[in-house]
């Protein structure tokens, strides 16, 4: 992929300490962007910062923010820091994702994959709108998945959190469907601004998506599929394309795969569902 200068631009990447996020942060830094990477583990984040600095050169600007974004209060704290420390944000990559494998309810009462994969991007993006707008031309890129095809939006939090109804696959798929519906509604709401919003399926990537406490069945399926997976370097290419390429500078509200617009499910194309999801997300995060 051709290299474009991002000198003077600022990029925020969630889940930027490993996998697709780390490759994305590294390549944006190589192209001259001031990079802010977000991760949960301080030691891992510092190792990532050091690796990016080594790859991008001594002059590269790389900042680390350590937050567990499954908690909305942490998303708010991250946003407050960004608003205090930066005057604009040119690229926001909602990359952090998780596939818990077992039912886990956060301290704030949300199923973990829903909280991390959807509510966090919804909240962070909305809180970053002042900085994105200040950039004049800004891009929001959200990592979704082909798994969205079997997803549904469950409006009832109690049902989402129910041990009797929980399935690790459907919980993940639901959150990935939410990523696309959120992107489409966001693009609609930002239609008259200089901010674009797109999402993508990165491919079947060999990353640290699954947790160490996940089920034995899920771990077995993951390891069985590993020979078919692509590397994080390959998986990051569509993210980087949407974040930097002039070809998509005016494209918004689309779902991509392999750096091309891709077909998504009928649910993902439903504007009524997108509007309904926005209302659910606003109620559950307290952020409109």
Automatic annotation (TrEMBL):
The entry's keywords: Oxidoreductase
Coiled-coil regions, chain positions: none
InterPro entries named in the record: NAD(P)-bd_dom_sf (IPR036291), SDR_fam (IPR002347)
Residue ranges crossing the lipid bilayer per the database entry: none
Record bears the keyword Oxidoreductase: yes
PANTHER family given in the database record: PHOSPHATIDYLINOSITOL-GLYCAN BIOSYNTHESIS CLASS F PROTEIN, PHOSPHATIDYLINOSITOL-GLYCAN BIOSYNTHESIS CLASS F PROTEIN-RELATED
Homology family: Belongs to the short-chain dehydrogenases/reductases (SDR) family.
Record protein name field: SDR family oxidoreductase
Species assigned in the record: Hymenobacter fodinae
